[in-house]
From TrEMBL:
Known function: Catalyzes the reversible conversion of ribose-5-phosphate to ribulose 5-phosphate.
GO BP of this protein: pentose-phosphate shunt, non-oxidative branch
Subunit record text: Homodimer.
Organism: Rhodopseudomonas faecalis
Keywords: Isomerase
CDD domains assigned: RPI_A
Documented EC number(s): 5.3.1.6
Protein name per UniProt: Ribose-5-phosphate isomerase A
Source taxon at top rank: Bacteria
Pfam hit, one: Rib_5-P_isom_A
Gene3D superfamilies xrefs: 3.30.70.260, 3.40.50.1360
Sample GO molecular function, one term: ribose-5-phosphate isomerase activity
InterPro entries registered for this protein in UniProt: NagB/RpiA_transferase-like, Ribose-5P_isomerase, Ribose5P_isomerase_typA_subgr, Ribose5P_isomerase_type_A
């Protein structure tokens, strides 16, 4: 079974939580793309839902699949957001932003009653940090912001190489919001909550890819089956199916 097959299994399992009339956040990335395609098939079969995409790429996919769309200007609360992750730890904290959509992804997730994360089980880690942490920044004052990020990391007892993300054209990658991304290669983040708070104080940082306390559940697919991790009363429990 290929990683792509596992991603589609996770997406199909999350789709079981969708009910008629729901307002949905539609994530970005290869796993979320499977969810959008499967949801589109349900919509064409009569399911009545409306979605808020987290990127222009997802918007195009959803439109192609026939999913009705809205915005958070028209709807200020969503029932469920379904999105992927680059890393998931045992407390359901995440690293996201490998696709560059972290700002919109976090806004949509925060506006949702529930966030369901879908992934193959390779994304589950003991400690976040193996995947480079995306940090979305304002282009103005790049050197000053980079220095502030280095100081923030040092105050949390960590260090690593900071790389400005490049696009396919070799120039700086530009997000849907017109910002740049610095990828922090840290290896390990012992206290993700502390780092998240520290980065948020930097004026040039628009957002970062640490999603702390936002995920309600995670659907992880492996060749052995589906594992579901749920957050309830501040604790995370798991079951297999």
């Amino acid at each position: 079974m290929s990683p792509d097959d596992l991603k589609r299994q996770a997406a199909a399992t999350a789709l079981e939580q969708v009910r008629d009339g729901m307002k949905l956040g539609l994530g970005t990335g290869s796993t979320a793309k499977h969810f959008v395609e499967l949801l589109g098939a349900k919509v064409r079969a009569g399911l009545n839902v409306i979605g808020v995409p987290t990127s222009e790429v997802t918007r195009a996919d959803a439109e192609r699949c026939g999913i009705p769309l809205t915005t958070l200007d028209e709807v200020d609360r969503l029932d469920i957001t379904v999105d992927g992750a680059d890393e998931i730890d045992g407390a359901l904290n995440l690293v996201k932003g490998g696709g560059g959509a972290l700002l919109r992804e976090k806004i949509v997730a925060a506006a949702s009653d529930r966030m369901i994360v879908i992934a193959d089980d390779s994304k589950l880690v003991e400690t976040l940090g193996r995947f480079p942490l995306p940090i979305e920044i304002i282009p103005f004052g790049l050197a000053a912001t980079r220095h502030a990020i280095e100081q923030a990391m040092a105050s949390c007892g960590i260090s690593g190489e900071l790389k400005l993300r490049s696009g396919k054209d070799g120039h700086a990658f530009v997000t849907d919001g017109g910002h740049w991304i610095i990828d922090a290669h840290l290896g390990r983040i012992p206290d993700a909550t502390r780092l998240a708070a520290t980065l948020s104080f930097i004026p040039g940082v628009v957002e970062h890819g640490l999603f702390i306390g936002l995920a309600s559940s995670a659907v992880l697919a492996s060749p052995q089956g589906i594992r579901i991790m749920e957050r309830s009363s501040g604790r995370v429990s798991g079951e297999s199916k």
